[in-house]
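hi!! sorry for the late reply, been swamped w classes. u asked for the two structures so here they r. pasted raw, havent cleaned anything up. first the sequence of the first protein and right below it the tokens
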Amino acid sequence: MTRQLPRSRQGGPKRQHLLPRDRQQLRPCAWPAMDRARWERAQRRDNPLDEDGFLADSAPRTVKSYGDAYGLFLGWLDSVGELDADQPLDQRLTPERLGRFILNLRERCRASTISDHLTKLKMAMRALAPSGDWSWITRHPLAPTAREVRASRKPIKEVNGAAILGEGRRMMEEAGRRGDELRAAMDFRNGLMLVFQALFTLRLGNLTEIVIGEHLVRRGTRSFLQFQETVKNKADLDYEVPGWLAAYLATYLERFRPILLGPLPDHRHLWVCDDGQPMKPRGVHAVFDHHCRTPDGEPLSTHPFRHAKATAFMLRDPGNLGLAAAALGHNGVSSVNQVYDRSGGIAASRAWNAIKRKRFGQLFDDDDDAES
């Protein structure tokens, strides 16, 4: 007999209860007791009597995304009256049920969203039942094909990095000629922020959180940006601040940042609001929304800078995915290839043409003219 579980909204997305039941996810606190115990065990580390859990080294937001994927499957299972709290995992998630779940997702989600969801569901199942083989989840016959995923992706906004660098430098140069000190300090800060993102292409959270002496540090006569525990995948990021930018940075720290800080104690955050408080992600996002535009005039956020960097690396050196991954702070190359790179077939075709030229010589010299 199928036993229904109480649906919990605790900690869930706002207004989730207004969604149709098949779209509501069960939070971990409402999972079957066996699943909750396994989920907690998967996150444990340093247990002298057992190995570290599958998720022990995963960032909290990664763990949450896996849990959300499994919770959505449980919510759908509950909505069709098939959630049995006592049923073993390998009987709860079967190819037949997963197929119906995928069809349900196809009614409302892009193929790229479904593919991402299935990948996270697979990782959740590996955490819950490490001894099982769950690779079939992403290979299910009803799962989106690679062609469907590519076709469904939203177009990435084009970033003109040189133009944004120039705009940032112009804002900093002109700030010193403003009569209003506070306005000048805000303009200089915003210009410096644009240059930082154009050069370092950080995630919004990492760009916002920069603390002097912790993330922005001096080593000898050089300045560096370093991130460790707060990076999404816990990969270490270490960027040297070029000399020309260090001069602007020194001007901001010595002249303009104290104006923004005002009478408040120094909290050491690099980006300061006009009221002296540390800037929040929403405020940093607003700076880019106001000052950055695509060549078509659309506002830019911080994330397209990362797509642009990955694509640039791929176009320059298609065979070196590791270099692009390292530049973005990724542990592996799969997400660079699948998510960030927007070079399409250009990088692959250039690599292939290079191989042809090397092998067949003059027969393919005309390719150089076509690619120029």
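now the second protein. again sequence first, tokens right under
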Amino acid sequence: MSDNLLLQKLNRENGLINILLTNDDGIYAPGLAAMEHALRRLGNVYVVAPSREQSGVSHSITFLTPLTVKNVFVEDKHWGWSVDGSPADCVKLGVAEILPELPDLIISGINGGLNAGINVLYSGTVAAAIEGAFYGITSFAVSLEYNENESFSIAADIAVNVIENVLQRIKQDKKNKCTLKNCSNKLSSENIKMSGDLYNLNIPFSALSNPKPEVRIVDMDVMPDWELFERRIDPMGRPYYWLSGRNDPRQPTKKKSEQLTDIIALSQGFITLSPLNFNLTDKIKLKNMESWQSVTWDLSAQKNPDNTTRSNAPSIRTTAGVKSRENPKNKNQKSQ
């Protein structure tokens, strides 16, 4: 029996769980190492992570090129698998090929930087957790506010405490729905595996020095960010753009009448936990559109004013650049 299978058997006997751990910062990121160490107390940790940073790739997957996998060793001991792909690729490959069986829990992180508000939609960290939920496996995305003095080890301990509390509540909820005879008192895979719950956990930097950090269960903030792009000119005279930051005209406020969202709660120093759902259907609009089913849809070919059918596709051509809207920062800019 291999060491992994033996450990797996022992974990089952002790009521521990198997955990797939990934991230979007890459397999050598300090947040991943801290999380792996902290998660050991919950069970057996399998690390399957991207070979390089994949921040902002969202839920992209690789299907036009092959995925290469390499074993990663730390101090001559096997530590994990490096995948030349996205975070979602890592979860797919980990679940389908690398792990000996379906994991009981999937964790993505710790990301170096918050994933709150609409950034959830861009995040590779969150996408990996969503991929886990696709398989019906309880999954968490974990992120820490960026700071030059960030301590991932403290953040990892906080995150595992929160995760353990959530899993215990899942177990309790399941226990309330069954008889005492059929329920286990242990935190076992049977209690959490196929729930498919999806959570986004964000930790502000200030929580690391707080002896009693508080958690808030909050909604995802959906107010838009206003991206700022810096326009530059390359040596060939062609324009290019760097995403240089955000300028949000809606600063988070502390008014008690406002709904507490992840962005606002984080600005107040709270750890935030948001339950997510990958079903993007607008259920209210879907209900309102039910009456449309009886409508006769006119899908005939579109006509020109002279009553002839439009059939020719427009021609497409490429130019050297685009004309930017007037921006004082772009004036008198030198080649860089």
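hope this helps!! also noticed smth abt the second:
The two ends are 60 Å apart (CA to CA).
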